Amino acid sequence: MKRGLIICGLVLTAAFPALGQVMPSHSSTPVATRPDGIVRPTGKPVVRVNGTVLTDRDLLREMYAIFPYARQHNGGFPKEMEAQIRNGALQMIIFEELVYQEALRRKMTVGPVKMQRAEADFEKQFSTPEEYESFVNGEFNGSTQSLRQQIRRSLLIDELLGMEVNAKAAVTNAEAKAYYDKNPSPFEYPDSFAFQTISVLPPQNATSNQLKEGRKRAEDALRQAKVTKTYEEFGLLAEKISDDDYRVMMGDHKFVPTEKLAPAVVQAMLAMQPGQVSDLLQIEQAYTIVRLNKHVPAGKMSFLEIRDKLKKQLQGQKKEQLRAALNKQLRSKAKVEAL
Questions:
Q1: Most buried among 124, 134, 175, 235, using CB within 10 Å?
Q2: Are 286 and 202 within 8 A, CB to CB?
Q3: What local confidence, expressed as pLDDT, does residue 38 receive?
C-alpha cells in the first residue's frame, strides 16, 4: 500500500491491515482516555523498538489512520472497537519503525529534489500559510527541521516497501492465466434470470371473498402489465400496484440463479423472450406477473473478461504475503519491548 503525506491532525500515516494477524498482541498498551471516551495522548512511551521509544502520540496517529471517523466524533473511538483498533495501530507503528531502521541500515537516502518536492506537496495540503505554521507549531514545537525529518522517514519507508513489496508483487499475464486455468470455479456462473415482478399477495388467513378479490386485482394488474413496452414502464407500474418488497426497486430482481426460483416461474421464463410479460403465475395463494429481462445460461467468464481484475486481486494477495514475510524477517532480528 502506498504511503502518503496526509493531514489527520498528525502527519505521515499509513495502514497495513494484515499486520494484526502476523504480529504479537499488546492490547493492554495504554492510551489516555477521558471519561467522555475521547482519547488524549500524553507523550507516554508505549513500546521500544531496538532502543527507539514510540509514544502514545505515535499510537494515536495510527489509530486515526485505521479509524478516521473518530475525528468526526471529537476523537472518540467506539468502545467495542477501541481495543482492537489500538492493538492494530501498535502493530503498525512497530512495523513502520522496523522498516525505517532497515532503510537506515541499508544506508538508503532521499535525494534533495525528491525531498523538496515532498515538502512542497505536504505544505500544499494546508489551506493557508497560517494553517501550515499552526500545524508545525502544534505538532513539532515550531521546528521545520523535525517536520523534514518526519517527511524523510516517511519517504524512506515508502521506498523500502516499494522495493521489497510493491515491485515484487507484480503479476504477469502468464501468472494470472495459470491461476485462471488451475482454479476454474471462481469464474463460473450458474444459469440465471434477470426479471421484474408485479405480485398480488393475499392477507394472512384470507377469506374466500378476499381470495376472489385478490384474483380480480391480479387480473387487472395483468391487463396493465401486458400493455407496458419497456423496463421503465413495467417498473413504474410495479412501484404503483405490486405488493412485494421489490416494488421499491421497480420490481427488479436483477440476476437470480435458476435453482433458487420456483419451478413455475422458471418454466414460464424459459418460454419467453426478453421484454415479454408472462401470464398470471399462481404460487399457492399469491399471484405473480413476470417480465423477463435476460436469461444467462451457465458458463464461465473468459480470461480476457477477468484478466485485469484477477491480476489486481493476485497482486493484492502477493503484497500481503510479502509484507508478512518482511515483518517476520525484521522481527526475527529485533528487540521489541512493550512499556
A1: 235
A2: yes
A3: 53
